[in-house]
Design brief:
- By secondary structure, the protein is mainly alpha-helical.
- It has one domain: Hypothetical protein af1432 (Orthogonal Bundle), CATH 1.10.3210.
- Helices cover 46% and strands 6% of the residues.
- The protein has a two-stranded antiparallel ribbon. A two-stranded antiparallel sheet has the order 2-3.
- Helix 3 crosses helix 5 and helix 5 crosses helix 10.
């Protein structure tokens, strides 16, 4: 299988239960591939992100909590970030997805919005010479959109996942890619949904490509960071901020992610907000991961 072909382990359904592709489908981006023949979803109107429900209020609340209150403490940066977010016009299916998670799995709802905000903040530092590209890539909080195809009992499970459950969870990357293509969302948003669990050294999923895309890498680091410091069903205690940063630095040391994005995250965590290129990362590891952490572990069937 080439890096441009992806096999669906499970079918992909829309929000209204229409099957787009069955399990076993090989997705190819070529002119004759399945994705090129995918019919577009019904035309729907768009709504500005901040004009929908309580999204703006919720985002401001989320980033006011530690440690985000330090990360988002630069007023000028936050105003610029909010301006970019406020310009986002989303189709109703994306907003309906956020509604679904707000009611059924609040962690995923919060996570999608926080990763969106943090990605824009880091992008402002790392992509200053190509802000138009950044604005297009981070046009919607949809990196985990495909989780609508994952059963809630898997998303909210407190015990280690079985191998089958882990396959179901990992299915969200390709499901999100297909769904965002179907709903005719931004091409970059679809690619971010597909690739945000890939790694620079080829150790990620869904296919283990060698990730060399700064845009996706920003979302990767934002996704990992928020997952570590946030309450999760599979662990009673979150990572403290220092330990989370050390875990991410360890991934950079192993070549899974790049140092520039990690340094940008570290710089945002410091009150004096140094430029990421001047940010020194300590090699001293003193953090302690939380006990009884089931993340990344798999049980027997």
């Amino acid at each position: 299988m080439s890096e441009h072909e992806y096999k669906l382990q499970y079918p992909v359904y829309t929000l209204d239960n229409i099957e787009l592709f069955p399990a076993g489908t090989i997705l190819s981006e070529g002119k004759s591939g399945e994705l090129s023949m995918l019919k577009k979803g019904p035309r729907t109107s768009t709504v500005k992100l901040f004009d929908y429900g309580s999204i703006k209020k919720d985002i401001l609340d989320f980033i006011s909590q530690p440690p985000y209150n330090v990360i988002f403490s630069n007023r000028e940066q936050v105003d610029s970030m909010l301006e970019i977010m406020g310009m986002s016009e989303l189709k109703f299916p994306i907003l309906e997805c956020l509604d679904y998670f707000r009611g059924a799995d609040f962690y995923t709802y919060r996570h999608m919005l926080v990763v969106f905000a943090l990605s824009i903040l880091l992008g402002q530092e790392l992509l200053k010479e190509n802000l138009d590209l950044m604005n297009g890539a981070f046009s919607s909080p949809a990196h985990d959109f495909g989780k609508i195809c994952v059963p809630l009992e898997v998303l909210k499970k407190t015990d280690p996942l079985t191998p089958k459950e882990r396959q179901l969870l990992e299915h969200h990357t390709l499901a999100g890619y297909v769904l965002l293509k179907y709903y005719n969302e931004n091409e970059l948003s679809a690619r971010i949904a597909r690739d945000h669990h890939e790694r620079n050294d080829g150790s990620g999923y869904p296919v283990g490509i060698t990730l060399k895309d700064r845009l996706v890498e920003i979302v990767v680091v934002s996704d990992i960071y928020d997952a570590l410091i946030s309450p999760r069903p599979y662990r009673p205690v979150s990572y403290d901020n220092r330990t989370a940063i050390e875990e991410i630095c360890g991934k950079a040391e192993r070549g899974e992610i790049g140092w520039d994005v990690v340094k940008a995250l570290v710089a945002c965590n410091r009150k004096n907000k140094p430029h990421y290129s001047e940010c020194h990362v300590s090699e001293d590891k003193r953090g302690t991961p939380p006990p009884n952490n089931a993340y990344g572990t798999t049980s027997k069937e």
